[in-house]
Amino acid sequence: xxxxxxxxxxxxxxHALRALDVWLFRRLGCGSTARPLTxxxxxxxxxxxxxxLVAALVVALWRGPVATAPVLGALATATGLQVVTxxxxxxxxxxxxxxxxxxxxHLNHSMRGGMxxxxxxxxxxxxxxLWPWMAMWPELALVPAIAALTAWARVHAGAHxxxxxxxxxxxxxxxxxxxxxxxG
Length: 184
What we know:
Layout: H1 16-27, H2 36-48, H3 50-61, H4 65-92, H5 118-130, H6 142-156, H7 162-183
Helix pairs in contact: 2-6, 4-5, 4-7, 5-6, 5-7, 6-7
């Protein structure tokens, strides 16, 4: 049985969305054209945004058994989505900004395609899955903020185009909400 997601990547033809992405990337001053402090901040956030995310989830878990199912369900959803988005990115094979020579590879990232952003999808899945509990557990309100900062950082560090992270966030949030609704 052939897995369509494992078949050779599609060649992405230039299209209006990628042209808009390149224009936005340059207009926003991302990658090597970013101000040094902005670039350093983006690189730092891209590398370390997982720390406050884990801290927020651990604090939520300290609330006891009532938090265990939502947090573990969100983590399971995000893990499954990570596998899917990596395969999808290989299939779509949309080049990253640094692969097109628009900037340096500030995050020492692989050349694997960047559409959709796996980081953004995982963060979006956590935010979407945990959304119903954010009003009860204030620490979870950090999750969407961390997701947005991570998406911003990945674009500004040159690892992704804006559409890569927007698609990743939207896909993750939608599937996170759907998975948690299915779990009841």
